[in-house]
Design goal:
By secondary structure, the chain is mainly alpha-helical. It has six helices and four strands, in the order H-H-E-H-H-H-E-E-H-E. Strands 1-4 form a two-stranded antiparallel ribbon. Helix 3 runs antiparallel to helix 6 and helix 5 packs across helix 6. The longest helix is centred in the last third of the chain and has 29 residues. The radius of gyration is 21 Å and the shape is elongated.
């Protein structure tokens, strides 16, 4: 068995991770809703990222957000991880915006936008790579959520 906090190996009968000191009962009774309050109070030390799904977070809703709106980072916003969600949203929006505008303005050449200048070709390649990376990370997130390897922020139970 592995520690849901740090990933270190834990013996089967142990209730405490010897590497990070996290009690397994704390993880099982952790709260996801307390993350917002901990961030508002600037008490970031309370927040732990774990693969154990907390009881106050809907697993099915997270998976559906990832499948249908994951390219825009909706699943990250749902689990209160706004930085990766914003990166997903900005990158995918720029990808869509660039290719829609370039297709409409420059016109299609064999179904793809045509760029005359070297600067536009470099920008086109950069935006295409950014979109491809978002798709790769989105597919990875679908598998990580499906197999419960997606890290979720929680505040540990103090009991």
């Amino acid at each position: 068995m592995r520690c849901p906090n740090c990933g270190a190996r834990i013996n089967r009968g142990a209730n405490v991770c010897f590497k990070c000191g996290t009690k397994l009962t704390q993880i099982q009774h952790a709260s996801h809703h307390a993350v917002k309050q901990a961030r508002a109070e600037y008490d970031i030390d309370k927040i732990v990222y774990t693969t154990v799904w907390p009881s106050d977070l809907n697993y099915t809703k997270t998976l559906l957000y990832c499948i249908f709106l994951g390219l825009f980072g909706a699943h990250y916003f749902y689990v209160k991880r706004p930085i990766p969600g914003t990166i997903f949203a900005v990158c995918w929006s720029l990808f869509i915006l660039f290719y829609v505008i370039s297709y409409a303005v420059l016109g299609p050449q064999n179904g793809y936008p045509s760029f005359e200048s070297d600067g536009m070709q470099v920008l086109s390649v950069f935006v295409a790579m950014m979109g491809a990376l978002v798709v790769i990370f989105w597919l990875t997130d679908i598998f990580r959520i499906s197999f419960k390897r997606f890290k979720v922020p929680v505040v540990l139970d103090t009991k």
